[in-house]
Amino acid sequence: MSNVMNVNPTEKKSLNPFRFINTERMVPKILLLIASVSILTSIGIVLTLVIDASHFFREVPLKQIFSSELAPLRENPSFGFLPLICGTFVTSGIAMLVAIPIGLSAAIYLSEFSAPSRRKVLKPIIEVLAGIPTIVYGFFAYSFVTPLLMQVIPNLEAKNALSPGIVMGIMIIPLVTSLSEDAMNAVPRRIREGALALGSTRLEVAIKVIVPAAISGIIASFVLAISRAIGETMIVTIASGSTKNFTLNFTQPMQTMTGYIVEFTSGDAGSGTIGYYSLYAVGLLLFIFTLLMNLVAKYITKKYRKEY
């Protein structure tokens, strides 16, 4: 024991197997390599979509793509994507009508009215909704929400756009609530105190002072929630149906872009056919829509951002 304790520092350094490695130079390179994984993955996804979708666009003219007739399994197939785009935006619009008022109201309460001890309990409970698998939401929409709505709306069909839209809105409430509350909490305390000192009520301070001051983060949360709803798959696949209707009537079944991809990847389209490559074309359109949403959110955040 005494021999080990008496080893001098130079002997300890000679026993180090990593003494010839310059860690100060290696660590940044390792971190750069790890950080590059997400970039390389994104590049790979884009290349896959573009290359395979190009086979589809060489065969199908753009005029047909932006038509309302979608029948990919007919003898003479037609690939009009407007029914898919319409179904996607109808269900996403319903989801935002549910998520925005509820999520923003919850964020205002947690930020401006709730005690810290109560906030610590309520916020994790709200965020639990984000951890529920989407397929569970899908069965919930089909087996519970739809029968409930059919008692209120007599002409509502078993597969429709309303039920999955409402459930998607419930699913993205935590996203709106969490991001909006973070934006409101970033507003300095002195602004609240100044508004209260001028005689404003707490509700007036929240609505007329805090929300406008945090508007960039709030709008960004809305846009990110929309992109999340647009990319949702299992809820619309189970509860919305696969009927390719080009209509704004949310009581009827509709198919979204993600639902179309799920339907065809189940084996309906043979590999190498136009129908098979249409999956990549729809995926590319979906990617473009979500990318535009994220760019809009970034632009809004930069333009209306306030620094205190």
Provide structural commentary.
The protein has 308 residues and is mainly α. 73% of the residues lie in helices and 1% in strands. The chain is globular.
Helix content range: over 70%
Helix and strand element order = HHHHEEHHHHHHHHHH
- The first-level CATH class name: Mainly Alpha
Total helical elements: 14
Structural class: mainly alpha
Mean pLDDT across the residues is: 83
The count of domains is 1
* Cα-atom radius of gyration: 26 Å
CATH topology, which one?
Answer: MetI-like fold
Bulk shape: globular
Unreliable spans: none
CATH architecture: Orthogonal Bundle
CATH superfamily: MetI-like
First-to-last CA distance: 60 Å
Strand fraction equals under 5%
- The strand count comes to 2
For the largest beta sheet, what order do the strands appear in spatially?
A: 1-2
| Largest sheet, strands/sense/barrel | 2 strands, antiparallel
List the helices and strands and how they pair.
Blueprint: H1 2-5, H2 9-15, H3 23-59, H4 62-65, E1 70-71, E2 78-79, H5 82-113, H6 116-127, H7 134-152, H8 162-185, H9 189-197, H10 202-213, H11 215-230, H12 234-239, H13 257-268, H14 274-303
Antiparallel strand pairs: 1-2
